[in-house]
Amino acid sequence: MEQEKLNKHYLEYDIFLKRARKDFDNRYKVEEFKPNADLSDFQLIKTLGAGSFGRVVLVKHKTKGDKLYAMKCMDKFHIVKSKQVAHTMYEIRVLDAVRFDFVINLDFFFKDNVYLFIVMPFINGGEMFSHLRNMKKFDETLSKFYAAQVILAFEYLHFLGMVYRDLKPENILIDKDGYLKVTDLGFAKKIDDQRTYTLCGTPEYLAPEIILSQGYNKSVDWWAIGVLIFEMSAGYPPFYAKDPMKIYEKIVSGKFTCPQHFSKALRDLVANILQVDRTKRYGILKNGSKDVKGHEWFKSVDFDQILRRRVKPSFKPKVRDAGDTSNFDYYDEEPFRTSSKEEFAEEFAEIKIPTK
Question: Most buried of the four, 166, 200, 268, 285, by CB within 10 Å?
Answer without folding.
Answer: 166
